[in-house]
Design brief:
It contains 12 helices and no strands. The protein has 246 residues and is mainly α.
Length: 246
């Protein structure tokens, strides 16, 4: 497994699109933090509370999630597009071992980059809004929550990329499942509609970023629901990866 992780690390750091996408994710987090925080500061009639300042600083998380999902798709679909997957499978005939290596390495890199980007976004936002006080434990919790959420979005993209194997198709599916359908689900009528919306992908996952509860879900239970969605995509992709030709 160590050799597989080294190989995947070489792939990630040597492909320019990967590094650019990670850079775009960080830029989105910092840029939206500065923009939204400056706007809120200019319209505020008094001091902005510390917790509100942190939430404002992490507004870019919703857009950065699409960037991470795209990166997750590219980690696997680019190999199918170029035919490099055949070389990878010749080196690692056990397909599940190869996929596990991609998941572990990508997850670790994403977690580090996204948590640092979230902490930087909070720093930029707080510097602009200048709340009267701020709880450092809250900063850590919010940064960790955003890092976990963005990493899960990247893994969701990786699962969809493994399942679909076609880059545009997997990216469109990620956008639909993470952005379009969650928004549409809030329009469903009745109690069953509220339940569906509450448990739908990013509607549940974003609770770990906001730190708020939604109906029967709290921040961590909502994140657990989102991880279940990620697991379904990943397991489905792994099953098809085992059965299909490269």
């Amino acid at each position: 497994m160590i050799d597989i992780l080294r190989s995947e690390w070489t792939k990630i750091r040597s492909v320019r699109s990967t590094m650019w996408t990670l850079a775009v994710t960080g830029a989105l987090m910092l840029g939206f933090s500065a923009l939204i925080s400056a706007s809120a500061k200019s319209m505020a009639t008094g001091p902005i509370p510390g917790a509100e300042a942190i939430v404002l600083a992490l507004t870019g998380t919703m857009i950065a999630a699409l960037s991470m999902a795209t990166l997750g798709v590219l980690v696997i679909s680019s190999e199918y597009r170029t035919g490099g997957i055949r070389t990878s499978l010749m080196a690692v005939p056990k397909r599940l071992s190869l996929l596990t290596g991609k998941i572990v390495l990508f997850g670790a890199v994403s977690m580090v980059v996204c948590t640092v980007a979230a902490a930087g976004a909070i720093g930029v936002g707080v510097a602009i809004t200048q709340p009267p006080s701020i709880d450092l434990l809250e900063v850590v919790r919010f940064a960790l929550g955003a890092g976990l959420y963005l990493t899960a979005c990247g893994l969701f993209g990786l699962g969809l990329g493994t399942l679909i194997r076609h880059t545009p198709g997997a990216i469109v599916s990620a956008i639909a499942l993470m952005l379009v359908l969650p928004t549409l689900s809030t329009q469903l009528p009745g109690a069953w509609g509220r339940t569906v919306s509450e448990y739908f992908t990013t509607n549940a996952g974003l609770l770990v970023v906001s730190g708020q509860s939604s109906g029967s879900l709290g921040p961590w239970s909502g994140f657990a629901v989102y991880l279940a969605w990620v697991a379904v995509a990943m397991v489905s992709g792994a099953v098809l990866m085992q059965r299909r030709d490269a």
